[in-house]
Design a protein that fits this description.
Elements: E1 2-7, H1 17-31, E2 36-43, H2 56-62, E3 65-68, H3 75-84, H4 88-91, H5 96-108, E4 113-117, H6 125-131, E5 135-140, H7 144-154, H8 158-179, E6 184-187, H9 190-198, E7 205-207, E8 227-231, H10 237-257, E9 263-266, E10 282-286, H11 291-295, E11 299-303, H12 313-320, E12 325-327, E13 344-345, H13 349-360, H14 363-380, H15 383-396
Parallel strand pairs: 1-2, 1-4, 2-3, 4-5, 5-6, 6-7, 8-9, 8-11, 9-10, 11-12, 12-13
Length: 400
């Protein structure tokens, strides 16, 4: 097949979970050796297009092109959307330049399949339908409006909470109206599939989780656990919200029981005025050169998310690295493992602190859960088999 993959940010370099999810699908399609791939991606100030960080084989295999979009917050545009009722989250990703280049690509090549990566590429569906007779699939990384509803619910300032709720409502309206205009949806988890169906989606919903190439995984760590770590971009609201909650409510309880415990915070785009620098036993690492060094180190990964949707790719990677994971229920959505067998779930500060102390105090169980979680990921999240399964399902559902 000739496949066009539309991305809302460059899949490489894979700087966050969304990039890695897109790149995993691209790699799976290329590795099959049966398809001709074309990638068209938006690039932004937050996610620039860096061709010099992509290897020559990838550039050739994807024939990747980029179009710069200015998605920065614009108060006038936001005010205009308040008047028109449009979703500002979505309209920021529409560009006439992107549409013109997309139109030119579609006029030159007849594609059998167009994959829309995330809801933020959906504004170009009308253009694709106009110039392409192939099948169109929405690869839904999240149910986007759920994230914003969670954020609104957890936001304390009244004015800000009202505005976030308005954004969530507009996004929900757009998401519900557009989802059945695709030929099918590829949800990232069974949980999200159920949510799409509950929202009234009338087209087939398949599941394509994030996958890892097992041959490329580093060896798992088998050493003792000696610290706690969080890895996540600090320009994503749910991460900031989660760490604020953890440090304000959970960390004091951990310190009461284990005064020598250490917390490492890593990830991109930490603000200059990080509010947690002065908190005891916390080290701000910022962006790390190789995330796998943390995923296979001697730490316990925490995922204290209070809002979100989809699947936390960092959870899959930490489990693949043999790391114990302590997470809220939201943080492990889409990963069908068992609490205490493959990870630890905790939704109250007392439970969260208790699970951390339990693992730090029991090195044998920390190693055992790491081994079980790695085996679980290798069995259920091998990338090539996941991509092949999706293509098989699409063929037999007559989507293609």
């Amino acid at each position: 097949m000739r496949i066009l993959q539309l991305c809302h940010k460059p899949p490489r370099p894979s700087t966050d979970g969304g990039c890695r999810a897109m790149d995993a699908l691209t790699r799976g399609l290329i590795a099959s050796g049966e398809h001709e791939i074309k990638v068209l991606t938006a690039a932004t100030a937050k996610h620039p297009f860096l061709a010099d960080k992509m290897d020559a084989d990838y550039l050739q295999a994807t024939n990747i092109e980029s179009v710069h979009l200015d998605t920065r917050l614009n108060k006038l545009d936001a005010l205009s959307n308040l008047v028109t009722g449009d979703s500002y989250n979505i309209t920021r990703f529409f560009s006439l330049d992107f549409e013109n280049i997309l139109t030119d690509i579609l006029r030159k090549t007849a594609f059998d399949l167009v994959i829309f990566e995330s809801l933020f590429t959906a504004p170009y569906l009308r253009t694709v339908r106009k110039f392409c007779d192939g099948s169109v699939i929405l690869r839904a990384h999240n149910i986007e409006h759920r994230i914003w509803k969670h954020l609104a619910r957890e936001t304390k300032p009244l004015t800000k909470r009202i505005y976030l709720r308005w954004l969530a409502d507009r996004l929900e309206e757009y998401e519900i109206n557009i989802m059945s205009d695709f030929d099918c949806i590829a949800a990232i988890s069974e949980d999200d599939k159920r949510h799409f169906e509950e929202l009234g989606c009338t087209v087939p919903v398949h599941v394509l989780p994030f996958g890892l190439d097992s041959a490329e995984l580093p060896p798992a760590s088998h050493g003792p656990v000696d610290h706690i770590f969080h890895l996540g971009a600090m320009d994503w609201r749910p991460n900031i919200q989660g760490i604020d909650w953890f440090i304000g409510n959970v960390w004091p309880l951990v310190m009461q029981q284990m005064p020598s415990a250490k917390l490492c915070l890593a990830g991109r785009n930490f603000p200059k005025d990080v509010p947690w620098k002065q908190v005891a036993n916390i080290e701000i690492l910022g962006e790390v050169a190789n995330a796998w060094d943390m995923m296979t180190g001697e730490g316990i990964m925490i995922i204290p998310l209070l809002s979100g949707s989809g699947m936390r790719i960092k959870a899959i990677e930490a489990m693949a690295g043999g790391r114990p994971v302590v997470s809220t229920t939201i943080g492990m959505e889409g990963i069908e493992g068992n609490d205490r067998e493959h990870f630890h779930l905790a939704d109250s500060p007392e439970e969260f602190a208790g699970r951390i102390v339990e693992i730090l105090s029991n090195p044998e169980e920390a190693e055992a859960i790491g081994e079980r979680s790695r085996a679980f990921v290798l069995e259920h999240f091998e990338n090539q088999s996941l991509v092949n399964r999706l293509l098989h399902e699409l063929e037999h559902s007559e989507t293609l």
